Amino acid sequence: MADKILTLNELRDYFTQHGITTFSAKEHGKPIACQVDTMAVFEEAGDAVVNDGIIYAPVKVCHTLLNRNGSYISEENMKKAMPTLKDRPLLAYIHKLDDGTLDFGSHNREIVEDENGDSRIVYYERQVGSFTSDDPFLQYDKDEDKTYVMAKVAIPTDYSPTYAILSSKGGKCKVSCELTINAMQYDVQNNYLEFTDFYFTGVTLLGSDEKGNAINEGMQGAKIDASASFDCKQNITKGGSDFSMKFDELLKKYNKTAEDVKFDYASMSDEELEAKFEEEFGDPKVTTVTFELNYGQIEEQIYRALEEIDRANHYRTDYMLVAVYDDRFIYRNLSDAENHYYAQNYTKNDTAVTLVGDPYEVFAEFLTAEEKASLDTMRANYQSLVDFKAQADKAAEDAKRDEVLNDASYACLADDSDFKTLKANKSDFSVDELRVNADLIFAKHIKAVGSFAINSNADVTPDNTKKFNIADDASADKENPYPGLFNE
Hints:
This protein is of the alpha+beta class. 31% of the residues lie in helices and 29% in strands. It has 12 helices and 22 strands. The strands form 4 sheets. Strands 1, 2, 3, 4, 5, 6, 7, 8, 13, 14, 15, 16, 17 and 18 form a 14-stranded mixed beta sheet that branches. A 4-stranded antiparallel beta sheet has the order 19-20-21-22, covered by helices on one side. A two-stranded antiparallel ribbon has the order 9-10. The N and C termini lie far apart (115 Å).
């Protein structure tokens, strides 16, 4: 069965519609994983300390009581869960924005399905730090009028750009804490889900999407991981897995998601489901489906390919994506003290990215404003310089061609049609080719004139060429060493 991501509001609404008031992982076999967006504050009250390349700072993880996403955690239940924050990972997905700066992303992940039809969630966040073994504690924030869970986190300053990004944000950054819920109950009167038994699994730093749009904080948009919650919903409703199999089958058949299904399907039989799907979505045989990878999916697949290379290198490398273009991407090795950058070509279709060829090294330089302005000017004028050089080179070649064609030796070809054609098409030939063709035409012309002899006393023309006199019969006889021998 495919995994599904549901919001807490959707889960709460489902509990309301179907009269469900409690959930227990012991009863249903799986806990529910969820994400609660909140605000983390680093370097708060000057408590941040940098020691041997690691910054230790307090973090606001989440607050007690009612959240705006419709969840509720009492102070008592929060205290029971707080120790599970110790040694948990701090995660981040680091990417490059359109303006060239680095920022954190979100819970970048993808649901993938293997050849057997089994699905799993692939996470692209990387661990960039860790909560320490110090005891978390509750602290009241007067300005927010909320009590927060405070915990200490350790972040290496050199391992990744994490600390630099946090510093650029003034030490403040939104986060999403991840909880695994073992038990919860729905408060019908107040319309919220109360988490009564849960533990922390990690915290993810939040920033913005590739366009620079900030990802909402304040516990809005929290998600439920349906690898647990969707199983829970089906088992509670039907008490078995047959329904989920039929429902998933129809979703795939009609190319729909659970969000597309607006009718109450939980209590329907298989036959009723099939009839209702056809009524709502028409004949699946005429459904046309098209797919196209978006920018985020391309970036995620590239990161996954880089992680595979890291794994093949036994994690001696730590590649970070720097920039993505239509046919290539730039990346660097965070473990490389020399800061080498590499480019890798790739192709893509509707569903996958494929690396092409071997990576090749590229270079990055840091410029002052004046240097950048000069470089931009050079780049802007580059094409005009190329065009000017091309015109100059052509003029020089044309001059050499004219020198060949104007050679005095070819004066006798002035009225020759082949020579005229050669002159008209001179640009089609190199200088050497032009000379060879002119000589051929010259030889053809001389042959056409007939038998001739060179008169050493011939007149010299004004252009310093000798006049060649065609020998007459008399002169031919005089030059014959056997005059009259063969006369009849």
